[in-house]
Fold this protein.
Amino acid sequence: MTAKIIDGKLIAAQERDELSQKIAADESEDMPVLAVVLVGNNDASRIYVRNKKKAAAEVGIGCEVLEFAESIGENALLEVIDELNDNPHINGIIVQLPLPSHINSLRVLSKIRPDKDVDGFNPYNAGLLACREPEAIVSATPRGILKLLETTGIKLVGKHVVIIGRSNIVGRPVAMLLLNQDCTVSITHSKTENLPEIVYQADIVVAACGQPKLVKKDWIKDGAVVIDVGINRVDGKLCGDVDFDDVLEKASFVTPVPGGVGPMTVAMLLKNTYEAFQKQRLNGNVHKCSCGKNGCHCEHR
Ligand code: NAD
């Protein structure tokens, strides 16, 4: 068997196109606005933020990047979040992770107003997802993974999904989302014994452990779907947590790195931002300044 490659780049472009048409067709002159909080000088974070800003502009979402020195204190950062929460021009807030080690990330993420928490990392939204509540804002990477799985056409109900990784931002929310799709979910991690044997039981493998090319073909059951979330740089080259070339002959579908889950994450973040904007508008939370536009850059701000 040679696996079909799930083209995340293409599917993400289609998602962004659809979104951009919706935003362009929106009769009001309002514009959704995303605020991105960036702390310190992490090169990878800077690249991610640049990509998000560019993608936002392409679909018609405003993006304000607020940059702070590595030395910013936790309280000062919490105040920044409070201001963004109260700023009616801002519809979505994300904090680029990782934060410096002197800052408690969970405390900062918990401060984001749930209806502006477009990364879905606030424990309130994580809790809603765990309780199967449809109004949860689902974080972008899991949402992107679900979309990629849907494009394969396979029925998710009853499938055994093995997730490698239990982080708050990938492993756990993916597990909840797929459990809510009636999958049978196993979550594995760095302390799991007999990992290859467990992965071999999977109809769907989601690798999110940050270990370059950990998953080999003899871990994969014939015909399994393999979703590679990992982004690792080895000798200057990007690779995932799955040995892509190796699993090609066992899997039915596999995502490449780059060009798989990564672009979907950005597309889903934008989708979350637009949906947050729509909900806030419905709830009357969106500020209109005297120029009549939300997200305006006029002197009335
Ligand atoms: P993390 O470091 O927070 O968590 C890694 C998880 O993997 C932990 O739960 C750990 O127990 C588990 N793990 C580590 N080594 C393992 C091993 N040998 N066997 C089994 N489990 C092991 O990482 P994260 O933030 O969840 O990210 C995981 C990977 O996904 C990273 O490569 C990251 O760069 C990537 N990522 C990609 C996207 C995207 O959009 N494509 C988004 C977020 C993260």
